[in-house]
């Protein structure tokens, strides 16, 4: 049995008096790769914020497991569209921000931090980008830099919010492969939020589906069934395999086969 | 030209060095203000500080001018920090409301300032830099040391929160508190500087040097450095020109900053072609 990192116990989440999700109970264990999917506005980001501890539950309890005698460290990768870079921070400077917490107040980064930044960029195959302004990078390059920044935090959990949003197909696949590789090679616990079911279906091991007022979690095979998805989305949905990859067809998908 | 500089240093040392200090401080703080896309907040705070200054001429607010201006500005920053996070009214609309009402109330209160005549109040509010008093100069030195010192000490925290407050919060940085701290420091600098050199010069320094530096420099550190250099150089050249051509000093300094910005824009255009 793997060590539990986060436990949601009958949690209700929302803002003010508005409840967005309730009755959420699940556990995330060390070494898991969990996908959190659902349409925009269903409450994925709210659950993510609760996991990260930036909002408190309206009801229930969120417990964090203890690793090496301390609480788990999060490496967060935000939606890159939320970053409005006016100043030309270099990729290296952006990754260095991941070291700021460890540095504490006032202290400046040292050679050890520089080495960690270089290693993190190297880990995501972005060492060649270190001197380039972050704001001038492509979507895929920016995402690599943000993942490197999260890795520079030495996280126990890597939490990614819509990492493939707005990317072309090749960049999307490259980023998903990179995340899978990080999970595989370092046994890093990964939580990935996406509104694209196809994106996560072929990469994660467990899946949580978030719909307005509904939360379902299980292994990918349990969640991705025709009947389950059709009832969840209120329209015919077919789950099929093409060259070993899971493909989700919605609406009139069957007629095109 | 050298004679003018010698004359300025001899006859108006507080104006000369004070305007350089204000230029340096506002140009430094202005980089973050421009990067956060809250330039309008800079304009609003200059007007609020002028309103605070006006209030000190009224019998029910008998505080020293600088204290009154500082108090009203800092209280406004605290209130704005709450109002600007709401979703009901757009952020720029909130700032617009504060801007318009600050100017209106300033005019109304000025009419009722019985202690002195309107021309005297206007003169003070305009911030005639050639008549900076030693007391005001030393207050500015204090503000300069505190605001610049805090910005340099906590540079990485302010930079992180300005760049990505959400991720900073997941790492335990209290983003809203850091934001508030930055705005309080900026508000303090703006209040003291506006009292000393007037709203035009302060707002000009908050915007023009940072934008010129952003056009010319490709690293964040160099942007801060060049912005500060422009903030120091502009008042020196502006004061020389104001003396030479017998024109008002504040607009002359802002015009110099604008010419530097225009040069930066052309240089950037040539470089990117």
What descriptors fit this protein?
heterodimer; A: 257 residues; alpha/beta; Rossmann fold; 3 domains; 6-stranded mixed beta sheet; 3-stranded antiparallel beta sheet; 9 helices; B: 273 residues; mainly alpha; ABC transporter involved in vitamin B12 uptake, BtuC; 82% helix; 0% strand; globular
Total number of distinct structural domains of chain B: 1
How many separate helices of chain B?
A: 13
Strand order of the largest sheet of chain A: 5-6-7-3-8-9
CATH superfamily of the largest domain in chain A: P-loop containing nucleotide triphosphate hydrolases
Query: Average pLDDT of chain B, to the nearest integer?
Result: 89
Q: Give the class-level CATH name of chain B.
A: Mainly Alpha
Q: Report the span from N to C terminus of chain A.
A: 42 Å
- The low-confidence parts of chain B are none
Q: Mean pLDDT score of chain A, rounded?
A: 88
Q: What is the CATH topology of the largest domain in chain A?
A: Rossmann fold
Any idea how many domains of chain A? 3
Under CATH, the topology of chain B can be stated as: ABC transporter involved in vitamin B12 uptake, BtuC
Q: Write the H/E string of chain B, N to C.
A: HHHHHHHHHHHHH
CATH superfamily of chain B: ABC transporter involved in vitamin B12 uptake, BtuC
* Whole-angstrom Rg of chain B: 19 Å
Quick one: which chains have the greatest interface? A-B, 28 and 27 residues
Largest sheet of chain B: none
Helix share of residues of chain B? over 70%
